Amino acid sequence: QLEWLTRFSVEMGNLRAALEWARGETAADEMLLDLSAALWRFWYARGWLSEGQSWLELALARAQVVNTTRAQALVGLGTLTWAHGDFARATRSCQAALEIAARLDYSSSRAWAELILGIIAQTRGDFVQAAEWERKSLNHFEQSGEAFGKALTCHMLGVLTQTRGGLAHAREWFETSLATHRAQGNLWGAVLPLYSLGTLAQAQGEWAAAKEYFEQSYALAGAVDSQLGLGLNANNLGLLDIEMGELERAAQWFAESIRQFEKMGDHLGIARAWRSQAQLALRRGDAPSAHALARQSLETCVRLGDQVSVAESLELLAVIVAAENDFARAARLAGAAARLREQLGAPPFPFDHARDEKILMQARDALGEERYLREWERGKTYALEEIAQRALTA
After folding, report:
1. pTM score
2. Rounded to an integer, what distance in angstroms lies between the CA atom of residue 235 and that of residue 3?
3. I need a labelling partner for 304 at 20 to 30 A (CA). Which of 28, 264, 344, 377 fits?
4. What pLDDT sits at residue 114?
């Protein structure tokens, strides 16, 4: 995999020249489609989302053929627009790919389209639909004999299982994904399961194990120039540094995380880093800055429809407003987050929950148990569409 990425990187000047030539030749429309369909994984791996999206859109508009190459290009467009946070566009592209692939009995593109549709459903909080798509994807990758795609799907099933609270089972999915990537010599693919194994350790307060996983994943991400891997691991290494009191180093990690996500145009990644920066600001005693960052994150996650991240942002805001001595509002925000998590079936991670409950104890003490629970229940009555609006205005 590293050799493949390196080879494409070295040849990218020639490949761009070929794409430009095909753009200017009306007789080369199918060549343009072939090249774009072949390059989408490379564009995604490098984080060159806008470049890849532009070429795929042009190729699909120019070449009106209906074949397996078109299905591949539609999957590529779906993947890149998903990574950009345009879930509606990604869904349309993947559904179009799925229709062609089903008609042509092309298992590979069926599997890729189902995987992206599963990830989108997962982000939107429809975990039942996500599991259905991802199980179908795994089956079609097995039919097509694509170990790389199978390993990616195992990883996403692990993320889904982890989100739903099944930490032990999630570990099995991540370890299967990692073992498959390693057996194929796929360094790029190993970045994400290593990172996710780190998040499992972090969720349970196992700092040393988490740090080891994140550092391994970060090193691999650097070797293959994975902006996604660099951004994710920098963010979580910064969170570990907050726990260890290394606040300046945490700030540096978060700045790097945002740089990597901005290169990709990954708005959910940027929102993730804002939440981390908010935690750092709060640790430094700067509640107003923490509040502003958490609100930015919440607004972005609401706009893009990432329901679990909305819950995380609400929980963070509850802790921040408690630090600002607005205890009744803190209780309502905590209740709103609890309602959303109950509806999603996505419990908070053990360490995060214990840490937040400890901080919110001051709100309980200040209000008294009876009033705190009354305000908490009031927050739980907010309708789903009201939760974020109330959090941003109340």
Report:
1. 0.89
2. 27
3. 377
4. 98
